[in-house]
Amino acid sequence: ESGRKMRLLVNEKRRDAYESALSDQTLDPQSARRRAAIVQALSSPHVWLALKDYWDMDGQEAGEAVAWAIQKLLATQK
């Protein structure tokens, strides 16, 4: 519980950073929010751990897979 509280202390700042980095005036606010949330999720250690544990990827390959997914996501939104 205390770990969750600590993470949430910077949650608003973290969300603002993702939304700012991914700002796109052509998207409606709900789509922009969803896109930022998915990019944050893909960047999380949980995803990297799943790629390592379930797909036998090392850090390099996991990074390339995540980068590929983010690039595809961003390309389909425009």
Overall description:
This protein has 78 residues and is mostly helical. The protein contains five helices and no strands. The radius of gyration is 14 Å and the shape is flat.
Characterize the largest beta sheet: strand count, sense, and whether it forms a barrel. none
Helicity, as a percent range: over 70%
Spatial shape: flat
Mean pLDDT: 85
**How much β-strand is present in the residues?**
under 5%
Radius of gyration: 14 Å
C-alpha end-to-end distance: 39 Å
The oligomeric state of the chains shown is single chain
Structural class: mainly alpha
Number of strands: 0
The topology string of helices and strands comes to HHHHH
Number of helices: 5
- Contiguous uncertain segments of 5+ residues: none
Q: Any key phrases for this structure?
A:
0% strand, 78 residues, mainly alpha
Task: Give a topology summary.
Layout: H1 2-9, H2 11-21, H3 29-42, H4 45-55, H5 59-76
Task: Summarize the entry for a quick read.
Helix content is 79%, strand content 0%.
